[in-house]
Amino acid sequence: MRHGTRHADGVPAELEAALRGGPFHIALRAAIAARGLPLQRVQHHLSRYGVKVGVTSLSYWQQGARRPQRPESLRAVRALEEILQLPDESLIRLLTRAEERPEQHRPAGRSYRSLVEASGVLEGLLAELESPLDGGLHTIGHHERVRIGARRELLARESQHIVRAHKDGVDRYVAIHRGDPGCAPERVAVHALENCRPGRVRWHHDTGVLVAELLFDTRLRTGDTFLFSYGFEDGTAGTSSEYVRGFHFAGGQYALQVRFDEEALPMRCHRFTQHSFAAPRSGRQELTLSGRHRSVHLVEPRVRSGLVGIAWDWE
Predict the structure, then answer these.
(1) Which domain of life is it from (predicted)?
(2) Cα dihedral sign, 205-256-259-196
(3) Contact of 84 with 10, CB cutoff 8 Å
(4) pLDDT higher for 161 or 115?
(5) Is 150 exposed, middle or buried (0-12, 13-18, 19+ CB in 10 A)?
């Protein structure tokens, strides 16, 4: 369904440069931003062209994690050129260029977690539970223990949380689990271990994201502190190579311990930090496995907004 050639008159300079030089995902993101369309509206427009593409796929395309390749996806790209009022073949041409030089456009390793954030999946799941990001609680201390299994998979993780309420009436906490690629969140078990009980659980299969309510047996008043523990039993995904914790707000102490099965010990481990998913990693520091307990750990005395994590190499 084409309606003649369009011209780039009035196209913002940033978009015009992206269409000229690429890569595809940068141009697509700039075009969507220039038209001010949320991805749900883009998806709706595509459906009017008889093309079915999920919001998550659109997000993946504009983040550079995946490229449209199937015939249906290429039809969607041609429709996008019209929906976004772009010159004919402008996006298709960038895709062709990427195929000729794929090594220059392959996404950086381990972009999965950034896709989760970018796709809006987490925000949508939290909205279903009517939960804001901070939930009325500030973290004073958080000790997290991650176990890696004999198949090199993320087997389970447990958290002990100490929080302080900054408003009256808080009676729950929403815990977030992001599985590794291939995770089946519907098979992940949620355990309320101490001073809480399980509430509603929501998940998104394609991204492996699960959110779970943990209900307190009391309503906190402003200034009250509370200690509770919970865990997730996973083991549904493939090889795990890192564990990352994101912080939307600065706060208290965070400690992360990763323990490995004796049948699957990594060659090297290191800690790192990031200001955001898009920022380069910094603060790299090698970590040495403890002998008998086969674990490494990090401690952040006072966390800042951003990310902190531990990564490891198997070979």
Answers:
(1) Bacteria
(2) negative
(3) no
(4) 161
(5) exposed
Measured CA to CA, the distance from residue 110 to residue 128 in angstroms comes to 28
Task: Compute the distance between CA of residue 17 and CA of residue 62 in angstroms, rounded to an integer.
Answer: 16
- Span 6-11, mean pLDDT? 47
Name the H helices within 106-183.
112-118, 121-128
Confidence of residue 37 (pLDDT cuts 50, 70, 90): confident
Q: What share of the chain is helix, strand, coil (3-state, %, to 5)?
A: 25, 35, 40
Model pTM?
0.65
Give the C-alpha separation, 222 to 75, whole Å: 55
Q: Is residue 73 within 8 Å of residue 2, measured between CB atoms? A: no
Residue tagged 């394609």 (tokens) = 206
Residue 114 pLDDT more than 90?
no
Domain boundaries, given as residue ranges, for the chain: 13-107, 115-313
Q: Which sign does the torsion angle of CA 99, 104, 106, 107 carry? A: negative
- Of 1.10.260, 3.30.1050, 2.60.40, 3.90.550, the CATH number of 115-313 is 2.60.40
In the predicted model, what is the mean pLDDT of the chain? 85
Nearest-CA neighbor of 266 among 243, 249, 250, 246? Answer: 243
Phi, psi angle pair for 227, to nearest 5°: -120, 130
pLDDT top residue among 133 and 98 = 133
The whole-number pLDDT of residue 188 equals: 97
Q: What are phi and psi of 126, to 5 degrees?
A: -65, -35
Does 273 have pLDDT greater than 80?
yes
Yes or no: say if 284 and 274 are a contact pair by the CB < 8 Å rule: no
Q: Is the pLDDT of residue 286 over 50?
A: yes
For the chain, the maximum distance between any two Cα atoms, rounded to a whole number of angstroms, is 70
SS3 at position 161? strand
Residue 225, pLDDT > 90, answer yes
